[in-house]
Specification:
The protein is an all-alpha fold. The chain folds into 2 domains: 63 residues, no CATH class; 201 residues, Hypothetical protein af1432 (Orthogonal Bundle). Helix 7 packs across helix 9. The longest helix has 21 residues. The protein is globular and about 60 Å long. It starts with a helix and ends in a 6-residue tail after the last helix.
Length: 280
């Protein structure tokens, strides 16, 4: 670590070598403290050293959770290049709140599938789960499409880059696009149905008692819920859609805007019918 703190001799930017070091040690907070202590002891309190320790500190939770995949009741994150690259992309794009939520959605959806005896491709379900909230991020949020569609489009582009079959791409796209539309996904492809199952369990607590305490605790220990997750996730939804309120017409996210914005006015289906240009 001493060599890394020698600003004039280190050939790699602090983010690069700190990333490598932190990855090796699973991004523990202790590594961040060790970096600072090492620099201080050697009188090397330079900007690069401080920046490196902060890189490790700030990424400790999400990266640890991303690399320490667990196995519970036979469910684990797929060990494939596609899954690993999806993990990296989502981890680097989303907040730790959304990243951990998305991973829990995969686990709960998979467990639901096993319980129901459904046959599904874990890799496709994982991609759907990891991308389902990408539309809430500035990088992937469009000006006029629903955030669900933005996330679905992001997943489609990612899968196309990896030459995945169009049928599988369509399945993932549909799963993400419909994950906030209750009453429909359960009658569709297992990946579509199970993504919604996972989301409903993690956000709404639907079927909470149908998952064992052992499974719930293992998943949350590996991919933690924030102390005030309920309010935090509502805020995350609001932050991701507040700039395009019209896209919430006819879906549950209108409730989010109504909760957060006292000036929000819902579009009314009946009013639209009555206000149309038709005479009858």
């Amino acid at each position: 670590m001493k060599a890394g703190c020698r600003g004039s001799t280190d050939k790699h930017p602090p983010s690069s070598w700190a990333w490598g070091l932190a990855t090796r040690y699973r991004f523990t907070a202790q590594i961040a403290r060790a970096l600072r202590a090492e620099c201080k002891l050697n009188g090397l309190w330079n900007k690069r050293c401080i920046a490196a320790s902060e890189v490790v500190q700030n990424m400790s939770t999400t990266a640890r959770d991303a690399t320490a995949a667990i196995s519970t009741s036979g469910v684990t994150v797929p060990d494939s290049r596609l899954a690993r690259e999806a993990t990296e992309l989502v981890r680097d794009t989303e907040s730790s709140l959304l990243f951990n939520h998305s991973t829990r959605v995969y686990y709960f959806g998979s467990l639901a599938g096993k319980k129901l005896g459904l046959k599904f491709d874990p890799e496709l379900l994982y991609i759907a789960a990891m991308f389902h909230d990408m539309g809430l991020t500035p990088q992937y949020s469009s000006k006029s499409d629903r955030f669900e569609v933005d996330g679905a489009n992001a997943a489609r582009a990612f899968l196309r880059q990896h030459k995945i079959a169009q049928q599988d791409i369509d399945t993932v796209w549909t799963a993400i696009a419909l994950h906030t539309t209750p009453g429909i996904p359960q009658y569709m492809h297992p990946v579509v149905a199970l993504l919604t199952n996972g989301v409903e369990m993690d956000v709404l607590g639907i079927a909470y008692s149908e998952f064992s305490g052992v499974d719930r605790e293992a998943i949350v220990a590996a991919y933690p819920r924030t102390e005030h997750f309920k309010e935090d996730i509502i805020q995350a939804f609001y932050d991701g859609i507040r700039h395009k309120p019209e896209t919430t017409f006819g879906n549950v996210k209108a409730d989010v805007l109504a909760d957060k914005d006292p000036k929000f006015q819902r579009l009314n289906f009946c009013s639209i019918i009555r206000g149309s240009q038709w005479k009858g």
